[in-house]
Amino acid sequence: MSHLLDRVRRFAAQQSLWRADTRIVAAVSGGADSVALFCALQQLAAGGDCQLAGLAHLHHHIRGAEADGDAAFCRHLAERAGVPMVIGDADVPALAASAGVSLEVAGRDARRQFYATAQATLSASRVAVAHTRDDQAETVLLRLARGAGPLGLSGMAPRRDHLVRPLLDIPRAELRSYLSEIGVTWREDATNADRAIPRNWVRHEVLPRLRELNAQADAALARAAGLLRTDAVFLDGLANEAATRLVRLEEGATGAKGAAAAGRRVTIDAAELGRLPLALARRVALRALETANPSRSYGLEEAELLCETAAGGVGGSLVGLEMERFGAAVVLVSRLPGAASFDPFELQLDMPGVVDAPHGRWTLSASGPMPRHEARAEAGQVMLDAGTLSPGLIVRPRRPGDRLHPLGAPGRKKVQDVFVDRKIPRDDRDREPIVTDEMGRIVWVAGQVLAAPFRVTSLTTTVVVLTLRRQ
């Protein structure tokens, strides 16, 4: 038992999942993995490693009376531990039918929304889910079968924003042994045996055969995912730097042949793109495509078509875009009905100081610098280490290639992905304020995520507090 807790404790420290004062919600389905997660967090909290804010359970309405039993079991689990519980309700079959997606996709979306609600209800800063090393191996195989690249094959990250996966290095069998050792039961989900579900087919058919080749196939796949994640983060950083040089966005411009563009016009330096290694060129191409049409994600085929156009191809039509070679550049023009342009802004924010949005949607202010012990941060505010900042700050909208290292995340992330994850309406994203320092480094996607390099640490002596107030 202590061995398992030590492994979880060590993994959490390596991945910066939490601190001693971090309030964590345990997402519990009633199955063995999530029950083990709850029990482990309970014991870690008792030892001062973290704080267990409560238990969260979502009723999916998929298994009838069995699902009712799961909810009752989880309620009893929380009551016995003496912690609060939040129960959510989502008719996943109805959601899947209305959206035209699978139960798995609808369930994942419902859980994401519920976790945010549970986190707010229990005043927590993390939601812990019970994905294991086995789950990671299954994810890698499923994505490999779909032809994913390095980022996709890196599997599930130990942390993504508020969501943490502290069991990602633990085999499923060890969790069951742990529960047996401490005398805790769990619920069995009969749907886990349904081989018509792709993940279950991989679990029951593919992985057992791979273990005949390598008894540690699960561990090998999980290790490969970690290596690929490290490489993907590095390459994405290089691609971000290249995109900043090569990709230029214009709003409300005319198309390459003089036609009025409905929304965006993006130009890419064709010669410079062609000089990049293919691994970087594809990534820059994807950034250009998603900058021109932020409403969707593009894949390898579209990126390679852009690279071919840069090398002398004639271009063509993509979903939502027209692409052609125009002089020394590849030009992408969005053709989205109703795409809206906006008035770009760049505002100087002094410390202390205040700026107002030109469109009147928000006010952003800076207080300080001030001694750390005098500062407090409330809702809508962030506290920064004054020693990491330049003398002045800039407030502007997003730009092509914008990325930052969110506080607590394992690596850099696109601002576009931040907006998608936080469900910022597409038409509002170009009006959201982004705070940078005078060197152009993103400090805060205001109201959303803080960049890790500017966080307050134990060495911080003076701080600046930024406040966002929406109109």
A few lines on this structure:
With 471 residues, the protein is α+β, with helices and mostly antiparallel strands. It is built from 14 helices and 22 strands.
Would you kindly provide a written description of the structure presented here, covering whatever features stand out?
The protein has helices spanning 2-14, 32-46, 65-81, 92-99, 103-121, 133-145, 150-153, 172-182, 198-213, 217-246, 270-275, 278-292, 300-310, 415-421; strands spanning 23-27, 51-59, 85-89, 126-128, 159-160, 163-164, 247-251, 264-269, 316-318, 321-326, 329-334, 347-349, 353-356, 362-371, 381-385, 393-396, 403-404, 413-414, 434-437, 442-445, 449-450, 462-470. The protein has 471 residues and is α+β, with helices and mostly antiparallel strands. The protein has 3 domains: 2-213, 3-Layer(aba) Sandwich (Rossmann fold); 237-334, Chorismate Mutase Domain, subunit A; 347-470, Phenylalanyl-trna Synthetase, Chain B, domain 3 (Phenylalanyl-tRNA Synthetase, Chain B, domain 3). The strands form 5 sheets. It has a 6-stranded mixed beta sheet with strand order 3-2-1-4-6-5, with helices on both faces. It has a 5-stranded antiparallel beta sheet with strand order 7-8-11-10-9. Helix 2 packs across helix 8 (172-182), helix 4 (92-99) crosses helix 5 (103-121) and helix 10 (217-246) crosses helix 12 (278-292). The model is unreliable at 253-262 and 337-341 (pLDDT under 50).
